Amino acid sequence: MSESMILATTLEELRQARALLENPLGLVPTMGYLHRGHLSLVERARAECASVGVSIFVNPTQFGPKEDLTNYPRNLEGDLKLLEAAGVDLVWMPTPEIVYPPGFQTWVAVEGLTSPLEGAMRPGHFRGVTTVVAKLFNAFQPQKAYFGQKDAQQAAVIRRMTRDLDFPVDITICPTLREADGLAMSSRNTYLNPQERQAATVLFRALSAAKAAYDSGERDAESLRVLMRETIESEPFAKMQYVSCADYDTLEELQTVGDKALLSMAVTLGKTRLIDNFVIGD
Length: 282
Ligand code: AMP
Known about the structure:
By secondary structure, the chain is α/β, with parallel strands linked by helices. The chain is built from ten helices and nine strands. The chain has helices at about 10-20, 35-50, 75-85, 95-100, 115-120, 125-140, 150-165, 195-200, 200-215, 220-235, and strands at about 5-10, 25-30, 50-55, 90, 145-150, 170-175, 240-245, 260-270, 270-280. The strands form two sheets. The protein has a six-stranded parallel β-sheet with strand order 1-4-3-2-5-6, with helices on both faces. Helix 6 (about 125-140) packs across helix 7. The chain is globular, with a radius of gyration of 19 Å. Adenosine monophosphate binds near residues 40 and 187.
């Protein structure tokens, strides 16, 4: 761990600072507005790596035209204090122009895995994610990188990209941190008004109901989806976008739950879109 945290903006600044850091370097990519979920990734990296790098970049290419790019919450000063206290060595905060200079026209896209779920609801989202993560891997040259299970499909897609493109990076997926009432921590929770905040526990309640049914022996995937759908429909402030009970590896919808399955959902509360998931049967 270095004495004080280095802040880099340009790619050149990042590369120079990175070259002085010891290996293995653990990278934690973020969009900032950090909460304890992000910090749990940083702590894991700190425990496992000689150096820790964090990126703070609200990546425009992973937002759709009608999504919340311009309103996405930001608190750079607060983020840097948290990262310094967590013992981070290097933070990269590039501008969009640094990551996507004029004339940019090269993309990294994972196919099949990005078709269902979030990929179906957010066309182009994962192309933006995989492109920026590939660029972050090139920029930081990390030996390890840390992502949250909260974004389950993103985790699967990044694993796939890393394997398919032979990035020499070991990917670790960390558990979802939750508030006391079960709501998964998310920078977007800040959008919720008090009524919506209360209603937002419906994601956890729906996932818990499906898991309880699974634990009592239910193996019919559609019954689990119906249970989740009904729980969401019982909450007047919530609107379901999708519920899924899918194969953990392929993300294809299941008929029968065998070994490892992913229960996942996207729900809107007013203008706020939240996602959550549980893994069952491992
Ligand atoms: P974001 O800033 O939303 O792009 O998230 C940066 C990283 O933190 C991603 O790998 C997320 O999956 C992870 N993350 C976000 N929320 C949580 C959470 N509640 N628990 C654990 N990891 C999380």
